């Protein structure tokens, strides 16, 4: 998976939610590898590293192996998921498709359940490779 914009805490949280979705939907006997390539967040690289490492640690024992690396070439812009089943999924916004939650006193289902969040406009393109 390539997304040069998994830099800030809310973007890394969305990455964690993607991993959670994979954990919940895969068969218990399956082993799944997710490798993220992103850019370093200037000024907050250590915090970004710590948060991405925490996703890796959270995956222990789940059958999902999450790894990540920084692309320091400065050339990547596109966001996509390449599967081992012959598909490339091009994401124009990456995983960052949700509007910021409306903050108010109390609780908001959108904080925990994606189906209760407002989405931004986006498109997804599936390409058979």
- The global form is globular
Q: Let me know the number of strands.
A: 5
Q: Give the uncertain stretches in residue-range form.
A: none
Task: Kindly report the spatial arrangement of strands forming the biggest sheet.
Answer: 3-4-5
Taking the sheet with the most strands, its summary is:
3 strands, antiparallel
Q: Which structural class is indicated by helix and strand composition?
A: alpha+beta
What is the fold named in CATH at topology level?
Answer: Endonuclease, Chain A
Distance between the termini: 15 Å
Look at the structure and give the mean pLDDT: 91
Secondary structure elements and their pairing?
Elements (H helix, E strand, L loop, with lengths): L8 H17 L6 E7 L6 H14 L5 E7 L9 E3 L4 E5 L32 E5 L1
Parallel strand pairs: 1-2
Antiparallel strand pairs: 3-4, 4-5
Helix pairs in contact: 1-2
Word description of this protein:
The chain is α+β, with helices and mostly antiparallel strands. It has a single domain (about 10-129), classed as Endonuclease, Chain A (2-Layer Sandwich), CATH 3.30.870. Helices cover about 25% and strands about 20% of the residues. The protein is built from two helices and five strands; from the N terminus they run αβαββββ. It has a three-stranded antiparallel sheet, with no helix packed on it. The chain has a two-stranded parallel ribbon with strand order 1-2. β3 (about 80) and β4 form a beta hairpin. α1 (about 10-25) packs parallel to α2 (about 45-60). The longest helix has 17 residues, at about 10-25. It is globular. The model has no long low-confidence stretch (mean pLDDT about 90).
């Amino acid at each position: 998976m390539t997304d040069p914009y998994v830099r800030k805490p809310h973007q890394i949280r969305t990455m964690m939610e993607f991993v959670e979705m994979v954990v919940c939907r895969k068969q218990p006997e399956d082993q799944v590898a997710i490798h993220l390539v992103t850019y370093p967040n200037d000024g907050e690289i250590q915090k970004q590293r710590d948060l991405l490492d925490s996703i890796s640690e959270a995956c222990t024992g789940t059958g999902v192996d999450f790894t990540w690396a920084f692309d320091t070439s400065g050339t990547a812009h596109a966001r996509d998921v390449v599967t081992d089943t012959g598909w490339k999924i091009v994401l124009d916004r990456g995983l960052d498709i949700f509007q910021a939650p409306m903050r108010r006193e109390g609780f908001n289902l959108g904080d925990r359940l994606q189906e209760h969040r407002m989405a931004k406009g986006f498109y997804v393109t599936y390409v058979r490779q």
